[in-house]
Amino acid sequence: MERFVDVILPLPLPGGFTYLLPPELEESVREGCRVVVPFGRKKFYTGIVERIHALRPEGYEVKEVLAVLDARPVLLPVQFRFWKWLSDYYLCTLGDVYKAALPSGLKLESETVVELNPDFEAGERLPEREQCVLDLLAEEPALSVTKLEQRAGIKNILAVLNALLSREAVFVKEELKRTYKPKTETRVRLAPDARNEHRLHIFFDELQRRAPKQLDLLMKYLEQSGALGGRERPVSKRDLLQRTGATQAVFTGLVSRGILETYQEEVGRLGNGQPVGPLGQPHVLSAAQQRAHDEIVAAFREKHVCLLYGVTSSGKTEIYIHLIQEALERGGQVLYLLPEIALTTQITERLKRVFGNRLGIYHSKFPDAERVEIWQRQLSDTPYDVILGVRSSVFLPFRRLELVIVDEEHETTYKQQDPAPRYHARNAAIVLASYYGAKTLLGTATPSLETWHNAETGKYARVDLSERHRAVQLPEIIPVDIRELAHKKRMKGPFSPLLLQYIREALERREQVILFQNRRGFAPMVECNTCGWVPKCQNCDVSLTYHKGLNMLTCHYCGYTTPLPLRCPACDGTDLRARGFGTEKVEDELHALLPEARMARMDLDTTRSRSAYERIIDDFQQGRTDILVGTQMVSKGLDFDRVSVVGILNADTLLNYPDFRAYERAFQLMAQVAGRAGRREMRGRVILQTKSIDHPMIAQVIANDYEGMAAGQLAERQLFRYPPYYRLVYVYLKHRREDVVEQMAQDMAARLRTLFRERVLGPDKPPVARIQTLFIRKIVLKVETTAPVARVRSLLLAVQREVGGDPRFKGAMVYYDVDPM
Predict the structure, then answer these.
(1) Is the N or the C terminus of the chain less surrounded, counting Cβ atoms within 10 Å?
(2) Residue 631 has what pLDDT?
C-alpha cells in the first residue's frame, strides 16, 4: 500500500505539502523527523513530517521524498501543537513558524552556503560521498548546496551534508558571519629571569636608581599577584594598569627589561566553560522574600499563572532560584526567559553557581552549531534541566517542563517584530506551559497593563513584594524643568547645572553614574540652517541619523549610509547643523565637560556582538568605568553596587510619542532606569529632566505610583476600545507603487467594514510610510476579546484572498501584526 507524508517546509506558503514515501524509506520515517524533499523545478528543502497517511492527493503529480535525515524525531508532539497555535493566533503560516523555530543547521536547503571547517581532522576513513564533498570544499571553501550537488554528481546531497555537519567537518554560512572565537584576556606574570629571587633584587636596585615609576608598577603587580608568597594569582594587564594609573610606556619598559611578560588566557564566556568552584546553595530568603515565595507556591495550587509584583532591587531573582530548585527536586524542567540575555550576565553567573552544568543558555548571538547542539541535547536522555534564554527559547523541545519564569514581563523586546511569526514570547510561554500542565511566573516592578488587568480581574494570581532587599530605600527622584533653564541659557548641552553638580560629587566620592537617552547616534537629524534642507533616506520615509564616529548619515530602518555632505545640495550653503541629541553626542559633550571621567556607551551601535555587551558591563561592574551612557538597554536587569546618580536626560521623548502605550512605556522605562540607583547601603538620586514639569505622569514616576498610572490608563483604554479590553490586529499592505497600495488598502478596508463594521479604522499611512523602497498602508482592526479567534482569522484570510486575486494588485504583500506593541 502506498504511504504519503504531509510535510512542513520553511516557506511562507499557506497549506501543507504532500509527498510520496518510497518503500525503502517507510520503516525509517516518523512524525517529527526531517526529510529532504524537492520543491519547484530545481530546489529542495529540509521539511518536517507532520503526518503519515495513505491518502493520495488529487489534482497534481505527487513528488517523492528524497531522504530521511533523522533516526529520532527532532520535534515533539507538543511542539506541533504549539506551532499550530502560533500560526493560527498570529495569522502566519506553519512555514513561518518553522523558519523562526529551528536553528539554521537543522534546515538545509538548495541556497544554503556550506563552508569547510579548517580545523576538522577525521579520526577514521570517511564514506566516499562525504570525502568527495570535503575535497570539493578544499578547492573552493564556500559553495551553495546546489553547486555542490552539481559538481559532486551526488543526488540527495542534503543527507551527506547532514552527516558532515554532525561531524563538525563543515559549517553553514549563516554561522560564519559570527564565527565562534574563544574570549581571551591579556594577563601578566613574572618573566623567567625575574623568578630568581637574587635576580629580582638586582632589578629592584636598578629600577630604584633609574625608573621609580617602573618600580612602583612592579611592586603593585607583586602585591596584586601574591607572587612572592609562592601562590601566584592571575592578573589581567588592563586591571593592573587601571588600578595603578600607570601608562603603557611604563609597562612596556618592564617587559623590555625582561622583568614582566604577557600571555593570552581563555576566559569563560556567557554560559560557556565550567562553573567556578563547587556548586553553592541558594541564599537564605529574607522574611519578605520568604512570605512572597510561600504565597506564590500557594497561588499555583489555584491558578496556572502568577504575577510577582516586586519593586526594583527587592530580590525577585533569589525567589526564582528557590522555585527553580524545588521544581528540579520534583524532577521537572524550567524555562527562564529574559528580555536581553547579554545584559544579564549577573543572573547567568548566579544561576551557574547554584545549578552548574544543569543550566543551558540559548541565544541568537550564539553560533549556529552551538544552538543545534542545545536543541539536540534537549531531545537526548540527559537534557538541560534549566534553560535560560531570550524569546526564541520557547521553541526548544522539553519533556518535563514544570515551571516557566518570564522576568521583566513588561519588556517590549519579548515581542518579535519582523519577520513572521510576530509572536509575544510572554503570551506564547503561557500557552506553552499550559500544554505541559506547567505553571508560569511573571516577574516585574512595572507590569504591562494587560498583565495587571488579568491579575486585577482574577485571571492570574498576584503576589506583592513591596520592600527592597536589606531595606534599601527607593531613590529620590528630582525633577528639573529644562524648558526654563534653556530659556535662561543655563543648559550645557543636554545637561542641567544640577545634574552636572551631582555627577561631579558622585565622581569625587568614587561612585558611578548612569545617563539615559533613548536615541542612539550623534544627532537624530542634520539640517541646513540657511534653507531648512534635511537629508532623507533614499529607500525609506525618514530623516538620516548622524553618526559622528563614522562621519556618516545612517538610516536606522534599512541600514542605508551616506557620507555627511560638506555643502547643502539645495542651496549650496555650508551651515549644516546637528539637531537633537543621541547617545554618541551625550558622550561627546560629557568628555568635553568632564575630561577626567572614564565613560562607556551602551546602545545598538556599541553592542553588536555578545562579547561587546559583556565587556561594557564587566568594566562598569569592576569600577573601570565611571559613567555609563545608554539607551533603554541600561534599564534592563542591571545590578551595580556603586551607582548613586541616574540621569534621565529628556523624559519628553518618551511621553510625546503617537502611540496609545506611550504613557505606560514612559512610566516603565523611567521607573526601571530609576531603579538602577542606590542598590545597597545608600539611597540613590535620579535627576529627571523634562520640559513638561506639570505632566501628571512625571508626578506618578516621582511618587512611584504605578497603581495610579495603571488606573488612569485602563479607564482611558476602556473608553477608546484598546487592549486589554479589545484585541488589536494591524493589517499591513506593501507595494513598490504608492497608487497601487493606496487603492488596494481602500478596497480591503471597504470589504472588512462590511464584515466588522465600526471595528475597522483606516487605511492610514503609518508614521514611517516607506521602508526599503516599499510604500506601506495600515488598517487597524479592534475586536472584542470575547470574539472567537478562529472566526476572525477565517474572515481576514478570506478578504485577503479576494483582494489578492485582483490582477491590479499583483506583487503586493499583506501581513498581520496581532497584539502589536
Answers:
(1) N
(2) 84
